[in-house]
UniProtKB/TrEMBL annotation:
SMART domains: PP2C_SIG. The keyword Lipid metabolism does not apply. Keywords: Hydrolase. PANTHER family: STAGE II SPORULATION PROTEIN E, STAGE II SPORULATION PROTEIN E-RELATED. InterPro entries: Bact_Sigma-Reg, PPM-type-like_dom_sf, PPM-type_phosphatase-like_dom. It is an enzyme of class 3 (hydrolase). Its EC number is 3.1.3.16. This is PP2C family protein-serine/threonine phosphatase. It comes from Streptomyces heliomycini. Residues 172-387 form the PPM-type phosphatase domain. One of its GO terms (molecular function) is protein serine/threonine phosphatase activity.
Length: 402
């Protein structure tokens, strides 16, 4: 059988496996095809600090670091890592498992010593990708993979928010997105969302007023209203206006949702924007870091039938955009010092060459260090987007919003 036929057979057998049986099926397939003696599927936990082994719950193996050690290095670098173990008869290959830019975890495969040649590592990498797609699909029919990601119980508000998200990353030839939420196990009102099409990318960053379940319900309504309006094919300002009406109709202006809406033209790099509240956005171009100043408009749901206007700015190939919620730029330390723009610029400058996922996580880590504890006083959302653009993309004029 040729290589493409083998790959097709493997994918068919993965698809035919019961949703909960994917780890066992993967082990059997890799034993047959590569002589694998041990196969472990690790999924990244909600806080992106640990890689959790997937086994029959409630029993599970020991987690490993998501940013240190061989498996953690494979996860953060998104490259295979071959580990020489204490057993001279075997080698351990750690393979990143990523679906369309959303980093799910790591597949670790123990193979006979000397068999980790480039062709084998490449084949195992393709297998890990195929398995990742099946895990993502199987999550609709079983709780196994969601449960395996948890180091502790989620609050109900956090459960609602995580189910509302599109993922934690997305990659296309024109851009790469990485995003992070904290406190991961008790998130309430912060949310990010995106939708990609043939010619446009729409991104939103939402900060629902309040805490806990009340904030989660508000944000759930806001994000659903924005999606409903977006899927009707209307412009960005009208999307904001319809969502504003939906939130006001439900709450009568008592609570509201601060939202940043962005729509990227994939051909030109022109970005249409509506700033409806407190989220901020920074652009890194070359060695420079600038906050993109947009005209602040009323948050969604604050007043009845608020009109919204779009502004535009441009991104150029190589640009990085970082959007942050008020839980980042408005959080104070125990001494009363705001995290602020200076600290944020330091983190963004230090992580300029790291992938978007790691930059988003670094901003939150810097915020936690600033507050002096593991638990943040408010929700924090960070979305980082690296812009590549398309060949022939019009160069920006270097200006901010216009």
């Amino acid at each position: 059988m040729n290589v493409s036929g083998q790959q097709s057979s493997v994918e068919s057998r993965l698809r035919a496996a019961p949703p909960h049986a994917l780890p066992a099926t993967a082990g059997a397939l890799l034993s047959e095809g590569y002589g694998a003696r041990e196969v472990t599927l690790f999924l990244a936990d909600y806080g992106l600090t640990l890689l959790q082994p997937v086994t029959h719950l409630p029993h599970t193996g020991e987690p490993v670091s998501a940013y240190d050690g061989p498996a953690g290095t494979a996860f953060t670098s998104q490259k295979p890592v071959v580990e020489i173990t204490g057993d001279p008869a075997t080698e351990l290959i750690h393979l990143p498992m990523t679906v369309r830019g959303d980093r799910l975890g790591v597949l670790s495969v123990r193979v006979p010593a000397g068999s980790a040649d480039p062709a084998t590592v490449l084949g195992l990498g393709e297998f890990a990708t195929a398995l990742g797609h099946e895990v993502a699909t199987a999550g609709r029919d079983t709780d196994l993979y969601l449960q395996a990601r948890r180091t502790r119980r989620l609050t109900l508000a956090a459960e609602m928010q995580w189910q509302l998200l599109p993922g934690r990353g997305c990659a296309r030839p024109e851009y790469t997105i990485g995003a992070h939420l904290e406190p991961a196990y008790a998130i309430g009102g912060d949310n990010f969302d995106w939708s990609t099409g043939a010619d446009h990318l729409t991104v939103t960053l939402t900060d629902g007023m309040g805490q806990g379940i009340d904030a989660s319900l508000l944000t759930g309504l806001t994000v659903s209203a924005l999606r409903n309006a977006r899927r009707a094919g209307i412009g960005l300002a009208d999307q904001a206006a319809l969502a504003d009406q939906a939130v006001y109709a439900q709450y009568g202006g008592k609570v509201y949702a601060s939202t940043l809406l962005l729509r990227f033209d994939l051909d030109t790099g022109t970005v249409s924007a509506v700033d409806a509240g407190s989220p901020q956005i920074y652009r890194l171009r070359g060695a420079g870091i600038e906050r993109i100043e947009l005209t602040a408009q009323f948050p969604l749901g604050m007043f009845e039938e608020t009109p919204y206007e779009e502004q535009t700015f441009r991104v150029e190939p190589g640009d990085r955009l970082v959007g942050i919620s008020s839980g980042v730029h408005g959080t104070s330390s125990a001494a009363g010092d705001l995290f602020g723009e200076r600290a944020l610029r330091q983190v963004l400058g230090a992580t300029r060459r790291t992938p978007p996922h790691e930059t988003a996580r670094a901003v939150v880590a810097g915020l936690m260090e600033h507050t002096g504890g593991k638990d943040l006083p408010a929700d924090a959302a960070v979305l980082c987007l690296d812009w590549t653009g398309r060949s022939g993309t019009a160069a920006g004029d270097g200006s901010g919003a216009g």
